[in-house]
Amino acid sequence: MCGIVGCAGRKPVAPLLVDGLKALEYRGYDSAGMALSQEGGLLVLKKKGRVTTLENEIKKMFPNGTAGIGHTRWATHGEPSDENAHPQVSENEDIAVVHNGIIENYAPLKKWLIEQGYKFTSETDTEVVVHLLSYYYKGDLVQAMLQAVSRLSGSYALAAMCATEPGKIVCTRRESPLVVGFGKGENYLASDVSALIKHTRDVCYLGENDVAVVTPDDISLFDCDGNPVQREHSHIDWDIAASEKCGYEHFMIKEMFEQPQALKNTILPRVTEGRIRFDGIDEGFLRSIKRIVICACGTAYHAGLVGRRWIEDFSRIPVETDIASEYRYRNPILSPDELCIVVSQSGETADSIAALRTFKKGGGKVLAITNVVGSTVARESDMVAYTWAGPEIAVASTKAYTTQLSVLFMLAMELGRVKGTLPQSKYDGLLNELLKIPELASKTLDLSSYAKIAAKRHYTQSNVFFIGRGLDQPATMESSLKLKEISYIHSEALPAGELKHGTIALIEKGTLVVAMSTQSALKEKLASNIKEVKARGAQVMLISSEDTEKTMDGVDEVLPLPKVEDELAPLISVIPAQLFAYYCSTLRGYDPDKPRNLAKSVTVE
Ligand code: M6R
Question: Is 340 a residue of the active site?
Fold first, then answer.
């Protein structure tokens, strides 16, 4: 939800800001803009549309400002337009602000500011921040910022500049991420490190309510009372290639093909001497767990649904998987012997963070499964199991999902082992099969041409239904989400047995039904459901291993999987669906990396 980047240096900074905004575009792409501090005041440039539209404007102007703040927007308050684009500026254009988050009390503040004589020119909540800064500004932007934010409620990462303090950027955060980066003769800030990695690997994540002052020579940090504070520095060791396309047409296809390596990186370091070991997760603690709740959103929630089945099956610990935005508001029953697992690729999803905080009130421990070191979810959890997927840039999650599954699978095995509910021979067998998963993911990707051919046949569909049973059921929910979010084809996933309780009314001649069948014990049941839709004229596509495909009547085409043990199938069964979604999206002429209305990191409620 909106990306912020800033730099204070000694050379023209606009190209660096454009570059940073491109890296952050996955957070929103409704408009882009920047404010530059140059001789004579602030130069503000902003445009509806993608960063390249802004870039084309900038190329005509050669701005020479050496400090600046940039923004790429995912619209919340006010439609995408030039007026609502950030930076938002004060009436005489001497203060500029970029913002990620939502100012929840913007309406009363706006009313009050209008009473004080301020005029509003946009529909954004951000504009109240600019006018508050003007109201409090008495020659010191830091003081004005401290006073302004004391009146805000909601979530924000803010960066501001003032024409009378050239070369200085003041930024702060509450419930939205912000990182500052240390360079040589220039210093930076951004919503996340992907915007900074070309310039520095020495960064510091701002704490809640911290204020940072970024100048070419220094970054000073203060708490919300204006007292100087020190924060730990982090070193970012990502490979730059990981945040570039490296010859692939889109990040999404690159990231799908990175799954074997990502799975290897996530699984192998945790397997030693025939056992799975999680750093920082104590065996005695695992043994003491009586109940588990998994909280997450979107794709991560789907991973949690699969995880629930594994944990209950292997360890007999009752698990509930909850959508984070519902968990936080449903007055959950909290208990100190319960474990909350928060699954979040970004570690910055507002609802997942809120669920984590709600859970913590009950005194239980939180385990984070996240891909981003130093993210809010990682910092606020008691234990972290990282997915080592590398940066995921495409909005549609692929490698983060399969690596989340691999962590949940290993955790389920460990819980089963310490609880004594998973016999050693079964544990050994599963571990052996788990170690084959990266190779099986690779084999599944080798079969990508099947998905491409199927997409050519079906990309004009307007409704697709996914069905499955057992472990295939949550896997089809993720498959369906992939298709709808990037191809804009309406799709739904249903437990196969549930179809006849209503939704089958929508099946007509030619409707595509994708059936997933990886669970041998449920094969026959699924076969009956396939017959039911076939009898109503559906075209049936089957995702299954070669053995199953031979036994299924009425199947029109197959997206094949290599042979895989039933329990581990979700780790690869989604891959053909990811590929199918990708090819449908590109055939329909869309950009799968930046689906409409979506942002990668949902840092607002
Ligand atoms: O960063 P998170 O895993 O917390 O994000 C949660 C969802 O927004 C995310 O999984 C979303 O559903 C996917 N990008 C869709 O592909």
Answer: no
* Ligand 1 first shell, C-beta below 6 A: 297-300, 344-346, 349, 352, 395-397, 485, 601-602
pLDDT digit string (tens) for 457-502?
A: 999 999 999 999 999 999 999 999 999 999 999 999 999 999 889 8
Please report, as a single letter, which amino acid is at residue 202. Answer: D
User: What letter would DSSP give residue 360?
Assistant: H
Site to substitute for ligand 1 among 255, 344, 345, most atoms within 8 A of C-beta: 345
**Alpha carbon nearest to ligand 1 atom 4, residue:** 344
Predicted confidence (pLDDT) at residue 550 exceeds the cutoff of 60: no
Does 242-435 match 3-236 at the fold level?
no
Beta strands in 9-153 (DSSP E): 31-38, 41-48, 67-73, 88-89, 95-103
Q: Count other C-beta atoms under 10 Å from residue 241's C-beta.
A: 10
Distance CA 41, CA 67 (A): 12
Spatial separation of the C-alpha atoms in residues 370 and 376, rounded to whole Å: 10
Looking at the CA of residue 349, tell me the nearest atom of ligand 1.
4
CATH code reported for the domain at 447-592 = 3.40.50.10490
Q: Whose CA is nearest to atom 7 of ligand 1?
A: 298
Annotated active-site residue 204? The verdict is no
Write down the architecture of domain 3-236 according to CATH.
4-Layer Sandwich (3.60)
Q: Which of 297, 325, 485 to mutate to test the pocket of ligand 1 (most atoms within 8 A of CB)?
A: 297
CATH class of segment(s) 242-435: alpha beta
Lowest pLDDT segment from 41-50, 240-249, 390-399:
240-249
Domain ranges of the chain: 3-236, 242-435, 447-592
How many degrees, rounded to 5, is the angle at CA 254 between CA 252 and CA 257? 110
Give the phi and the psi of residue 462 in degrees, each rounded to 5: -110, -15
Which of 2, 7, 204, 584 is flagged as catalytic?
A: 2
**What is the crossing angle of helices 14-24 and 51-59, to 10°?**
170
C-alpha 35 – ligand 1 centre gap (Å): 30
- Examine the pLDDT at 316 and tell me if it is beyond 90: yes
What are 150's two structure tokens? 């004391």
Q: Nearest-CA neighbor of 580 among 498, 512, 508, 534?
A: 512
Taking 70 as the threshold, does the pLDDT of residue 235 lie above it? yes
Query: Rounded to whole angstroms, how far apart are CA atoms 573 and 564?
Result: 9
Specify whether the CB–CB gap between 522 and 550 falls below 8 A: no
398 Cα: distance to centroid of ligand 1 (angstroms): 10
Which atom of ligand 1 is least distant from the CA of 370?
A: 3
Q: What is the pLDDT of residues 24-51, one digit of tens each?
A: 888 888 899 999 998 889 999 999 999 9
The atom of ligand 1 lying closest to the CA of 301 is 10
